[in-house]
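ARCHIVE CARD
Drawer: 12
Card no.: 0347
Subject: one protein chain, sequence and derived structure
Cross-reference: see card 0346
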Amino acid sequence: MAFDGLFIHAMVQELNHTLQNGRVMRISQPYPNEVILTIRAQRKNYPLLLSAHPTYARLQITQQPFTNPPVPTNFTMMLRKYLEGAHLLTIEQVENDRIVNLHFTSRNELGDSLPLILSIEIMGRHSNVILIKQEENKIIDTIKHVGIDQNRYRTLLPGADYIPAPKQEKVNPFKADLDKVENLLKSFPNREVLAQKLQITYQGLAFNSALYLADYLHQHDNQAKAFPDALANLKHAQIVKLNQKLDFTAFNYPETQVVASFESLSMLLDDFYRQKADFDRVMQQGAKLIHTIKTNLSKNRKKLKKLDQELAATQNAEDYRIKGELLTTYLHQVDRSMEQIELPNYYADNQPVKIALSKQLTPSQNAQKYFKRYTKLKNAVAYIEEQSKKTRAEVAYLENLQSQIELASPSDLPDIEAELAQEGYLRLKKQKRQQKHKVAKPAQFKASDGTFISVGKNNLQNDRLSLKIAQKTDWWLHVKDLPGSHVIIHSDQPSEETLIEAAKIAAYYSKARASANVAVDYLQVKKLRKPNGAKPGYVIYEGQQTLYVTPDEKLIKQLQV
């Protein structure tokens, strides 16, 4: 359905029912394009998310955890100045457009009533959140500043007159002329064509919404009356599968297409956007970390390839020794003017061997050249093998970090950044170097029988969890031979059910998340050992047992504390 005008219509109704006449208690801006107003209504606090993200712009109540930046943005400070303690009078949608105005009343410095509008425009990369003085029609501030050089029609800067977004020359479907609907049905009986015409004619219809309406109209005898009936039925919260893709909707789709149903549209969006939004935030906020890891990974892979080539070259060392010995044996046959000589190889039934010579060297010096080459290659083997071992470990370590970023949430990135700095891959800014990094707490789960399970989401958390927090009698789990999280069962005698649940958690938080049958090692913490000088997150162990499980995201959500 996408966040089109129809979905916004349903969302505004839901939010008004929950938040109307509430008071703004707290204002946060955890991400550059997203602001959260905590509104106290009906004796509860509701975190209202207004997102101007270019891909995931939306308006909803969210229960997703977030962390405030240490220094608030100018926009946050402006919102706090004008909206903290303000009353939310109502939330209204502009026609059926993707614009929602939140009407507040506050008090100015003199104690006089100050009507304010917080407007969110949900328009892809042009999405914005704008705070407006209603009586003066002046912009106080915007989450994204848009100057005249970017948009000649409207300037979105503090102090500018507020000019609404250009109005679409389309009909509000909630005020539709039913005769016109009937004419469209007669003129365009084909489903896809009718959907296109509905989309062109009526305001705020994504193509999937237009398709749903086209189907709904065709399924009812009184087709014109079916149009307002369909719009009146925007009361559902479903994730549906359409053309092999997941989408969210407020329409009531057939059960065969429904993947999941929710109590509210906000809960639906929390579930739908959680992974997508987190992944995008990680990619955006962790761009520097990702670049650092990729660069070092590429460098080490090239180095490993070169070392492998050099190691392969040492396999020819014996050839150089044999040629040196043959030249020494038949030195009397070698003339300084020769560029090549063919001699019988007494190590291989006197088979003839061609040996290249240098005119600049004496016969004896040519022989010594081959012996030196042989000695150099033989001495190089130990060094190359040692370097190769170190480089392979480096590649494995960096691949592990790469995997951790793929599985990370935004709150995990500071730990990974600190680790990269600690290992010398990254140079932190001066102020960050002065602050001692505090490792985030591991994720917490509770097994079906009440046993607590902890999960490290990155190497620093893994080390702290396995080597400092866990008791020696606790049980440790890790996916076998792949990058993944350390998982600790806080019990000396966990039940078989708890072991299986913990193994599923370990499989889920690993590179094998999408696999069907994952091997997970488990043993008591006292059998773990960290070698001196080992990289963060690296431990060795023996005496483990192995379980085979399939990751279960639904179970993980149920068990998470």
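Annotation on reverse: DSSP finds 15 helices and 20 strands in the chain. The mean pLDDT is 90.
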